[in-house]
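Hey, quick one: can you model this chain's 3D structure?
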Amino acid sequence: MKNIHLLPTEKPSRLWLSTRKENYLIFDKFPRGGVEYVEPKNIYITSEKDIKDNDWIITKDGRLVQVSYLLSKELDNASKIILTTDQDLIKDGVQAIDDEFLEWFVKNPSCDNVEVVDGIYFDDVEWISCYKIIIPKKEPKQETLEDAAKNFIENTMKFSFISNDTKTQANRMLKCVEFGAKWQQEQNKKLYSEEEVLRIITECKSYLSFGDEFNEIKWFEQFKKK
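Sure thing. Here's the predicted structure for all 226 residues.
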């Protein structure tokens, strides 16, 4: 569920959105071309926690409202603001978003949801109760067979895919590696799993006259390829 909201502001901000067609975010730098082509923005991170008097919320239609008993109707489908770059809200007690997250966010502006945990943390002086943003980490890219083969051919075999002297041999090696890998995959499909082998042995045991003296699991473990 969306909990990151990027809203315009008429006040100074360290976060800007380019109004040119690229629509990129700028953090803590003076925009190229001046302020004519950018809009100052604030980030608001919300929570589904219970809303109380004097809390700041974002309403269903995207407005900022401070809660009071006179505005109870605004609470329908509203979300409580727990972190922000809005200086007015920060002065009013809402926790500020740290620079580490802002630097990450300008590189990942499509992110509209982030995990936030509420805990007690040490701030070099004392223990304080506050929110902590869990910045998403990139999943390590799984190396493909082709990438691994190219890396081996270029760095271990020293055959370049660019040099006219070696690119023909390098591409032939790559084809051989790809063929070998596909062949091995096909062979693996023909192999029995451990469960299948053990089931076959157990079935055979039932036909042996000395089957009761035969421990199929011990025998299987003894001859299993380590």
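One thing worth noting: The helical segments are 87-91, 99-107, 145-155, 167-190, 194-205, 216-223.
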